[in-house]
Amino acid sequence: MKKVICIVALFVGFLGMAQEGKQHHQKERLLKELSVEQLATLRTKKMALALDLDQQQFDQVMQMQVENVAFHKAKAAERAENKEDQKRPTAQERYQRVNERLDRQLAQEQQLKELLTQEQYALWKQMKIEKHAHGKKRVKNKKRRG
């Protein structure tokens, strides 16, 4: 009887671990299927709920999100094209890409700092930190599973 319980427990454990990765792929597929405006609307509404944005802030954040989503979709298409061609970026291209990404992040933070109140900005900053920590934890768990 002990052996049967142990086997069932192991089976349930393995089954649970096997299901973890599917959620990320579903989310990724959903993001590919939605239009730029749909994605921007979803992201802006999430921010509005979390930060209690007024209508003017909502409209400005929506405009920022449309630009961001369009930029990211274009970059994703470019990466997919390079992946098909099996073209690897050089060290200089990687440096340039990271530098551009950081410049965009700094510009976005500056825009949000001007747009949001101090309390809203502090809350947004905290949410950003927590999201980053969650992503790091996920990467760490992915490496550990092998």
Features:
single chain; 146 residues; mainly alpha; 90% helix; extended
The percentage of residues in β strands lies in: under 5%
3D shape:
extended
Query: What is the helix/strand order?
Result: HHHHH
Helix content: over 70%
First CA to last CA: what distance? 32 Å
Given the structure, what is the number of helices? 5
- As an assembly, this protein is single chain
Low-confidence stretches: none
Radius of gyration: 20 Å
**How many β-strand stretches?**
0
Helix and strand arrangement:
Blueprint: H1 2-33, H2 36-51, H3 55-85, H4 91-115, H5 118-145
Helix pairs in contact: 2-3
Report on this structure:
The chain has 146 residues and is mainly alpha-helical. The protein has a domain at 100-146. Helix content is 90%, strand content 0%. It is built from five helices and no strands. The chain has helices at 2-33, 36-51, 55-85, 91-115, 118-145. The relative contact order is 0.07. The mean pLDDT is 83.
What would a concise description of this structure say?
The protein has helices spanning 2-33, 36-51, 55-85, 91-115, 118-145. It is mostly helical and 146 residues long. The model has no long low-confidence stretch (mean pLDDT 83).
